[in-house]
Amino acid sequence: MKNIKTILAIGVGVFLFLSLMPSVHVFADTEKKVFELTIPSEESTTIDNILYTIFKEMGYEISLTSASSTAAVTMVDDGEKDGLAAQTTSVGDQYKNIMRGSESISTVSIVVIARDDFAQGITGWNSLSGLKVGYTHQTEYITEHLPKDVRTIVKKNALDELYPLLLDGTIDVIVMPLSEYAGFVYPKGVKEYPPIDVMPTYTYFNKEYASLVPQFDTILARMKQDGTIGKIANRAGQDTSRNKIILNISSFYPDMVWEDELKRGIKSIFADEDKQYIVYSVNLNSKRILSKENRNKAVLDTIRTSFIARKPDVLVVSDMNALAFTVENYFSMFKDIPVVFCGINTFDPQMLYNTAGHFTGVRADISAKETVDMMLKLFPDTKNIFVLNDYLETGKMWRRDIAAQLQPFAGKLNVEYNENIPMDELLLKMQQLPPDTLVLTGFYFLDSNNIYYKQQELQQLLTQNCKVPIFGLLSSSLGYGEVGGKYVDGKSQAEAASIMAKQIIDGDKKVTDLPVQLDTQHYNSWKFDYNVLKLYHIPESVLPEHSVIMHKPTPYYESNPLQFVFLVFLFVLPILSSVFLVFFTSKLRKQNAELMRTQKNLHTAEELISKDVEIKEIKERLEVVISTAPVLYIFILDGKVFELNDYTKHNVNIAVGDTTDRLFTNPGRIEGITQ
Fold it and tell me: Distance between CA atoms of 250 and 490, rounded to whole angstroms?
């Protein structure tokens, strides 16, 4: 019993030891190696690179999350984040869990922007007295320092919301913070005054990491002295020898057909086995994330963290929201990086503000007039065209473009545009369209209730509720019930933009050498759905040359070439075998007949040889008889004696070769012998 107790005790001990081992192991491996920082959303990525370099030397990776100053401080104080970068000394004493490094990392200036025709001089905070002021960031600091008698204070989330108010006179000036390494975008007609205030910025730590502060300050001070900070600011230390990084910023979401076309277009130009070009993509997810602030923040955080160590060599941005995002954040996030855009339907140079020298691209012209011309050719009795677009910014631009292109049809066709209504009301409208109407869909993803519709879902709903033919202009809408049209093709757009981007990063061209391509309808392509063409009895012969026919049955030999060859082989093999058999049999018969003739001839030859032997034997016997017989034997040939026997030779005076006239002129010679 004692032994059993001992064994049980040992077993329990081993069990407890083994069960505790994972806890000890996990505890040992939980030493933190990623330092999580918040950073003002308007801060330059140069600060990201400086922080990355410092923490890397300290043995840490970092992650960055952009946030407003107040929110950022709160997250660090609560322990949700480990530190706060590039923050002024305005952090209040109420945050008990935060401590500041002693070495400043940069400066932030307060600048004032006004219209070009604004005559008043601005030299300090007091110069703003009596003015109408707008601002975006640093809410507490700016409001605390504004004169008490300012007439109006307008707060907006972004500069592009303040500029219209500045230009139309609603406000007199914009007051905004500007990072030491950043800049800001502004439209024509505005000017910037010298800073009215300059403040150093520091890195703040949650007190849990107080032990890291001295090391952080030491490294930062050294980097200032040895010029490392300046090299980072000028991107001088970036290794670009191995490969080129292309960052694609897309407006929509990855599983959208249009986005897939764009990605395929970019990769077709930058595809290489040596990995000389590396393509990354981030998506704003417009249409799904309607809040501009939310979607922009998500992408800013992704880019900040993903490209700390190495900045992209070129940006390829697609569609309006991505372009607006890139322009708005250019001087803080992408300074000096060339940008090539595509998919922009209504391009206006004013969209680029003061970044124009860094941007070029390809406008996405739609082919509304050509498509309507084809629609009328296929359905000549048409009297009405119903045009469908949503009421988001891109949809509005499409509507304007379509209206301009269809102007020549005024008085000939009744062109109607959909209202911004819920989907059920739109479908009811579709059901009530008269039979002499054709539908033209443009850019539609969201109804008035902000309900998002994939193109497949939308087109199927339209087809089920519409009795008249539907045509389109956006390639991602084809294949679900539309007849066809001349479509804006995402792949062609991206290929054209990527060719320009490749020329830039390969050093063949500068951005300023490549003007924006404005006439781009040649990138669009005619496409039709075979099933819908068949439904409306439209022959392929009436379609434009080089049209792409979707869903057209592919000949078996094209879709399954190996199987087709195998089947042909199986079919031809018996025929070839039969032909070979007939040929071989015929040849064999000929050979047999020849053999039989040869055998027959051989048999005949053997008989002749046998008879010849017999003749020779008879001749030899006859020669013996003639030669020895006591008779005259004379053989005459051609009038001469040819042969004589022995008896004649001895008894007659005649020899071989004598002529017959000599013989017969003296016949007595013979008579005497005879006697």
Answer: 12
